[in-house]
Design brief:
297 residues, mainly beta
Length: 297
């Protein structure tokens, strides 16, 4: 892996004096550029601190880095050892090309960001990459948003391991669960909308609670193609979601909903789905309340 702290030119050898030599000079013509790619739909946001748009940047064919004064960044911290580097950036949503609706929809979750320095008068000098990695959580303070660019080594700080709990740890119909999601997926069209989280399909015939804890996605309308939302409850042909979609649904929007599994051993894995052999939970584990309960006389 190349050292990302030295200038990088992705189109071969430098055709001008290297950026390192330029940075040692008395007159600097450098700017900071940011390039972010969504992992969800491939959308690209490219901005620069220079007063004009920047094009023909090596490594970014066809990408225009738009000039904006709507971004400020903290210093990048590169710790020794395996501790992850990070950099915090504040940006105006509109000027950066990131909409509030896209943030709410999760379009920019874990997007890949690159911050680098280049010479706007001679972009073929190379690029000094300050930091590259996934975006952290985005905090909104409209019209501002704050995000953190983390290094790839930040994945090493994640806690990985099994949790002992009564409920099944599998996601319904994943490889460990073993059931076919197509057998439990229903489609339909909205016939009524109460709010951004409550809507009705009067053609549904399932019993109340059938979709509880299920997954809901739109296949048409403004929310089509966005990540699923968890179904909190289903009763009287009405779905109630735990989180809203970014755009208010409309009557006539088509959807797809997966039957809900509440991850209970007896009620779900045995009774509803006959899938007890795949249950990945500890239904008989003692709770803290049971362990600390005083004995009865």
């Amino acid at each position: 892996m190349p050292n990302l702290r030295i200038p990088q030119n992705y189109q071969g050898a430098y055709s001008a004096t290297s950026l390192i030599t330029h940075l040692a000079g008395a007159t600097l013509t450098v700017c900071v550029c940011a390039h972010v790619v969504s992992e969800v739909n491939g959308d690209v946001v490219a901005i620069t601190s220079w007063s004009q748009d920047l094009t023909s940047v090596p490594g970014y064919p066809g990408v225009t880095f738009k000039s904006t004064a709507g971004i400020t960044a903290s210093k990048a911290e590169h710790s020794e050892g395996a501790r992850p580097a990070n950099m915090e950036a504040d940006l105006f949503l509109v000027s950066a090309g990131i909409t509030e609706a896209d943030i709410l929809a999760g379009v920019w979750v874990h997007a890949t960001g690159t911050i680098f320095i280049t010479n706007y008068e001679a972009v073929d000098m190379g690029q000094l990459i300050v930091i590259k990695g996934p975006l952290g959580s985005i905090v909104q303070k409209v019209p501002m948003a704050t995000t953190e660019i983390q290094s790839w080594s930040s994945a090493l700080s994640k806690m990985i391991g099994a949790i002992t709990r009564p409920e099944c740890a599998n996601r319904f119909c994943d490889a460990a669960c073993g059931l076919n999601v197509l057998d439990f997926t229903e489609t339909g069209t909205l016939t009524g909308v109460t709010s951004a989280t409550v809507f009705t399909d009067s053609a549904r015939t399932e019993a109340d609670g059938e979709f509880n804890n299920g997954e809901f996605v739109f296949t048409s309308g403004s929310n089509a193609g966005l990540p699923f939302r968890q179904i909190d409850s289903y009763a009287s042909d009405t779905f109630t979601l735990r989180q809203p979609f970014p755009y208010t649904p409309q009557v006539g929007d088509a959807y797809s909903a997966v039957i809900g599994c509440q991850k209970r051993f007896q009620a779900d894995c045995i009774t509803r789905f006959s899938n007890a052999d795949r249950f990945k939970g500890f239904p008989h584990v003692s709770t803290p309340e049971n362990l600390l309960r005083l004995p009865t006389s």
